[in-house]
Every structure is written in C-alpha cells, then in structure tokens.
Design a protein that fits this description.
The protein is an all-beta fold and 235 residues long. The chain contains no helices and 11 strands. The chain has strands at 23-39, 50-60, 79-86, 91-104, 113-127, 134-151, 164-184, 187-198, 201-206, 217-218, 220-234. The N and C termini lie far apart (55 Å). 28% of the residues are buried.
C-alpha cells in the first residue's frame, strides 16, 4: 500500500523588522532631486526670477538642507535622524538633522567665504505590513533651518572693515512615502519620494559703519522633489 503525502506550502518570508524595538537611528541623502525657486516679488514673465535645478547621483546634495537659495546653495550633505517607535512598531516620532560647514575660494583674499548651515526637522512616520520584509511607509514633517555666509574681510580707504554676512532662516514642511526593505532583522534599506516646501528669509549685516544692516525679508518660495536613499537601524 502506498501512502502519498504533500509538503505544506512554504510560508512567505517574514522578518521581525522593528518588532520589540523602541528606537530608530537612520541616515539618508538624495540620489535625485528637482527644485524650483521663485524669488519673492519676482516677475512671472522674467525667467531670471525663477530658478530650476535638477540632478542625480550617489550622495546628491539636498537643497532643503542648506536653505536654498542665495549664498547658501546646495552642498553634499548626509542627514542623520533618531526616533521613538511605538503603537506595535508601526509609528515613529523623531527628528532629522543636517549640518554643513564649507569654505570657498580658500586662499583668495578677495573672494574667500565661510558658510555654516543646517536644519532640524521633527517627523511622524507610519509603517505598514508589520512582520514583512517589505514595509511601505508614509511620513509628514515640519521644521526649520538656517545658516550664515561670512564674506572675506577688506579695509576701505578710510580704514573701515568691509565684511558682509548673509543670514538665512527657513521654515520647511514636507510629506513623503516609500518602503523599508529588511534584508535582516532590525536593519532596513530605505527608499522614498519626498516633497518639501521651504520659505527662506534673509538679511545682510555689515562691519562697515557706512553701510546699514538690512531687515529680515522673505527671499521667495521653493519646492523640492527628491528621491531619498538611506538606512535604518532599530534597537
């Protein structure tokens, strides 16, 4: 008598993901972005009042990090974030930060400048499909940033120092969505699409007593559409 038996169907691959973990540490950058900036009060018929930029590549600059536009143009930066995981490892509340320090025309007495800029953005992050190795997510965020561009110092014929410093502050708000890919437990490769709005405000200050500091004023409105790549560790 022959007895036949069939093997049970294999279960879909699952990982623990963020299960049982309370914190998320993550790093990210843009690998592609498109940004549009319209100068405040600009003439819509004047292309010079509208600035569009596009780029791609590993380690892309994030225009949103450096307070685009003006003297604080995009630089290559990576963001770092930290969050608290709750609601059965579905929700995360945290913040992402970016910081850069750049020198330009180093050694040039006429054009040397130093730029310091960055931002911090709290976020709410929601993950779907717990227990799966592919976990979609959505995210909302709101924060602020700023920076200074300190120009080279010069001395005029009267002995006055002529250094100009540009200051920028910018609120930002954004949304995004994507996937966490868990090749192993508690570690994910993150891919997402982000949309951010930024409203930079600026002023200039001078060390020359013959020049008056300017008041804070809105520089314009900017949007950034970016493809984000990063990694997260849950612990």
């Amino acid at each position: 008598m022959a007895v036949g038996a069939s093997a049970p169907a294999s279960a879909a691959p699952k990982v623990r993901g963020a299960d049982g973990k309370r914190f998320r540490l993550h790093f990210d950058t843009n690998i592609f972005d498109f940004s549009h900036f319209n100068r405040n009060g600009g003439n819509l018929n004047d292309p010079g009042d509208r600035v569009n930029s596009v780029g791609f590549g590993i380690g892309r600059p994030r225009p949103i990090d450096s307070g685009y536009p003006g003297p604080l143009m995009p630089r290559n930066v990576f963001g770092i974030g930290f969050g608290y995981v709750f609601l059965q490892h579905r929700a995360i509340v945290g913040a992402r930060a970016a910081l850069l320090v750049d020198g330009s025309d180093v050694g040039d007495n006429d054009g040397r400048a130093t730029v310091v800029a960055g931002q911090i953005v709290p976020y709410f992050h929601w993950m779907f499909l717990p227990g799966r190795w592919v976990r979609p997510y959505v995210e909302g965020r709101v924060g602020f940033g700023g920076g200074v561009d300190v120009g080279d110092e010069d001395v005029d014929n009267d002995g006055n120092r002529e250094r100009r410093t540009a200051h920028v502050l910018f609120p930002t708000v954004g949304v995004g969505g994507g996937v966490h890919l868990f090749p192993v437990d508690f570690f994910s490769v993150d891919l997402g699409l982000d949309f951010d709005y930024v409203a930079p405000h600026g002023r200039d200050t001078f060390e020359d007593p013959d020049l008056d500091d300017t008041d804070w004023g809105k520089l314009g409105d900017g949007i950034v559409l970016g493809l984000r790549a990063g990694a997260s560790v849950f612990f």
